[in-house]
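FAQ: What does the model actually see?

It sees only this:
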Amino acid sequence: MSKTPILQMKGISKRFPGVQALEQVDFDVYPGEVHALVGENGAGKSTLMKILSGIYPKDAGLIILNGDEVEFNDPIEAQKYGISVIYQEFDLAQNLTVAENILLCREPANSLGLIKRREFNRIARESLDKLGIAVNPNTLVSHLKVAERQMVAIVKALSFNAKIIVMDEPTSALSEHEIELLFAIIENLRSRDVAVIYISHRLQEITKIADRVTVLRDGRLVGCVQTAEVTTDQIVAMMVGRELKDFFRKEEVQIRDVVLEVEHLEQEGVVHDVSFQLRAGEILGFAGLVGARRTETARLIFGLDQRDSGDIFLNGKLVDIKTPDDAIALGVAYVPEDRKTQGLILSWTLAENTTLPRLSEVSRRGFIDFRAEAAVAQKYVTSLDIKTPSVQQQVMYLSGGNQQKVVIAKWLMTNPKVLILDEPTRGIDVGAKSEIYALMSQLAKQGLGIILISSELPEILGMSDRIIVMREGYVTGELLRDEATEEKVMLYATKEIATKLATGV
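And it is asked to produce this:
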């Protein structure tokens, strides 16, 4: 690694109306280095990177690139200097091919202005081959998997001769195998002296891939440490300003009678002969790799998709759930894995989102009683500790953790007996995660039966009383809390389905 930073940001400050977003923040990165930038939502990570990429002007401080002071007025100018940002929502045109995205607005053309299609595809293919990415340049981006889109976004960034690549939550929607492929590409970038600024809430990844970690809190620099010299617990303590010994906040709760029983649930080609019980006060974890069909199972139970066969019992009574309305009326609630597209109407207020499933309770003669709506929403703001200026705040302006609490509040208003939480902490910071875990324990203590679907094994192990493991739509194992380990869960998650069917084990 070079002894001279390729980038130095010194004393960066930025203020928005009523908020000091950054105050005297220092950050640097060396050629061939992976430098992680971490902090809770609102810590200032995005603001710092938007200043670097020319989206925001800084109020104070210096940006030094390759030893020279620079000032970026827009992202195009930053890009010309070799700085590329790959956002969580990729800036790829879905209706264009891989090659068209990589060379957008830079297509090789002849003297008549017509694209040289053969050369066009050759350049794209060579760009992909440099990183060992086996994607057809002629494939539409809309037909690619999430991981493949991630790789194409990296190739596109490098096509601008990027020397610094910012990756914002690059693994949030990737499987373990896909994450390993991404890490291999990052190692390739490192070997070519490309600097990577890596933003992620997944601290286990950071300790694996990053050379250094810079921690921000409330717009200020907490510190910069060598990854090899700290533990994830120490990084968490730097991020939140306190020790998180009780991070998962799992309380001992009296587990009561069976509240939900599923027998031989089946959807042809998707879910196969799934049976389990859930008790009141229990947190039942559903683990498995990508493609295990845990979400598909939840959707069948909630009536979002139609089952081909199988029975569902609530409190011992056979029920027929064909639609979400049926499920809600019977006391089943479902917090989906994508809160922004499936759980919330982002342009609506907190109050409007919270009361949406039960408008009749805040209406008079067919018209919404806005005082009643606000009062109900305020009750959940208080009980769930939702941080918001008011219940009239549009939810798009809340942090990820507070948005997730609004989704939970919305479903708690239906007075459920069964609460299905699908990836409840995806994309939220460690402090907010701890608050969600505490809320789960509180709800279990009140007698709710909770199904927790999560791709994060520490979360499943830390919060579940019992764990169901699935693979390819089959239940391959069940573990009690005291016997569950990462190794045992992974053993069941990778178990051969043919062996299971043949032996019944």
